[in-house]
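Standup notes
- DV: blocked on the single-chain target, sequence here:
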Amino acid sequence: MYLGGNQVFPAASTIKLTILIAFYQDLDAGKVSLNDTLVLRRDLLTGGSGAMQYEPIGSHYSAKEVLKRMITISDNTATNLIIDHLGGIDCLNARFRSWGLQHTVMHNLLADLRGTNTTSAEDMVSLLAQVVEENLLSSQSQDQVLNLLRHTTIRSLLPAGLGPGANIADKTGDIGFLIGDAGLIIMPTGKQYLAGIFVTCPYNDVRGRNFIQEVSRTTYTYLLD
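- DV (later): unblocked, structure below
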């Protein structure tokens, strides 16, 4: 099912999915390690999601810890540390193009509350498909990426529409006037599918959340039959 999948939206925190995959691609290439030390700098500090913004400048973290914070609790400052460690925004944009993503572009570090970083549902699903098919990552890195995505703490969008026993690896985004979610769903039957949904709405309007939940529920029910 495809409806407006190539429409460009603010990426919000779904951009963290692309950054996560870029890190693990570099890990497979031997360019980075989960044991690398990342240092909190003032120029990488930002507000919004996450607690790293309240920690002392100069704090040291392993890349593994920073990645976990970036994905599971969507920490914006942690994300900026990973962006910096991977060479910056221009390097990441080049990577996105190499993956064939047509609408995914970073213009600013997080927190990007104005929505200048962009993507599309088509790009998010395409990227996840490449991960699942092991076109971008080794099987070990694929497992680690999906495991992190299965431990995200925001469960109010795609996960809310799934039935008992379903498993989802996803990343959400929310900047008030835009919400989105993209993920891999595994049904109790073993059937798998990918979903990506973005919705613009009045600021913090619950109708956006309700819409994503309903689309998720309808899709799940249809595929369960």
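- Follow-up: The two ends are 16 Å apart (CA to CA).
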